[in-house]
Every structure is written in structure tokens, then in C-alpha cells.
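Batch 3, record 17
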Amino acid sequence: MSNVVKVDVWSDIACPWCFVGKRRFEQAVARFDGEVEVEYHSFELSPDTPVDYAGTEAEFLAKHKGMPTAQAEQMLAQMTELAAGEGLAYDFGSLQHANTVLAHQALHHAKAHGLQAELKERLLAAYFEQGRNLNHAEELADLAAEVGLDRDAVLKDLADGTYLTAVRADQEQAIEYGIGGVPFYVFDGRLAVSGAQSPDVFVSALERVVTEAGASA
Amino acid sequence: MSGPFELVGDADAPVCVDGVCAIPGADAEASEDAPAAD
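Prediction for the assembled complex:
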């Protein structure tokens, strides 16, 4: 019996819990006695985000989500602390809020070229830790080139909207599945985990999928 | 959840929804309906 477990993950690069969840999931994969194949799917957490929003992240939250700026700042500080517990250095002070539709297209380009996992990690770090502006194709292409993709090919596909249909298909599937929040993980199309849960939960899901596959083989 | 799969784990685990991300423990000092960060 093969121990390869397919895991489909809906997430957004502008989702702080998605990066935290990624680290917790990676811990689970390291503990799991088997192979895991991960495929990331697009989920625009806040598609109404304007390109090149000029304010701070706290100001964006306060203005667009209807909360006092002080409360937003408190939330970001707590999120930063939680992320640090996973070894992530969130820097909301330098974060440049982004509309992520182009980033999702870049991730589909990367998937087509076998480098989706690498670009996913690069974009999350660029966004949350390094204050990179992921609103624009040029910046995304620079980051894509860092993980081994052809910069010009990325730029062309982003300009042509080559993968916009794929992004929308992911989003439609999320709606069909009733996925309302991210990160969201589907194991072998049979078990699902919602949210940045503990590594124990992910390990349990991975092992159960393998056990049940063996029982039905 | 209406997908063709069984949901496992903690149903209240932190997720981001509509640009807002729940933070456990943040509710007490936050407004009554918006314990969140983006």
C-alpha cells in the first residue's frame, strides 16, 4: 500500500493563520511515517483590498473592518507573538497590505512548473516578514525568480491572466465545499481540518487516512 | 461545512474569514464582535 497522502490546502498569502498553520502542518509531516503531497489552492481572504493601500495594516483593519485603531494594533501585536511561537518573525509595521489575486496566479504558474511549495513559502515570508509589496507583477516575478522560475515567463502569464481561470476555479470549489475560512486542509478528499490546528491534529488526520486506505484495500 | 469530507480536530481552531482573523484570548479586551487581525 502506498503511504502517499494527498493534502489539498486552501489558503491566502495575506492570511497570518495560514503561515502559522503551514509551520504546524510541516511539523506534522516531519513526524508522519509516510509521504505527503501538498497542493495549494487559491482563496482570496479579502478580495476587496485595494491595490497599493497607503496606510498601515492597523489602519486598514480599523477602516475596513470597523474596529478602533488601538484595538487593531493590539490584535496585530498578539498575532505577532503567536507567530513568534512558531518561529515566524511577523513585522506588521513594514507589511504592505496586498490584493492577492496576482499572487495566486503566480502560485498557479509555479504549480505548473513544479515549484508551488517553494513559491508559497517565499511569498508568505516576503509578505509577513520582509515587507515586500506583492500587489505588483514585477515584485512577484522577482520572488518567483528567486525560487527558480523564469521571471519573464511569470510576467507574461501574469500580464495575460493565464491562470486567472484556475484561481477562480479554486475559489468556486471552496464555495462548493462550504469553505468559509482559511487555512483549510483536505486529506485524501475524505477528511478535513479547518484552521491552524496543532501538529497532533494533522498527524492524526494523516495516519487515519493511511489506516483507512489500508483497511479498504 | 458541506464538502464531501469529514471535519476533524478542533471546530474552534483559528481561521481567517473575510479579511479578519480570530485570535484566541483577544476577545476580552476587544470590542464585542471583532476580535481579529488581518
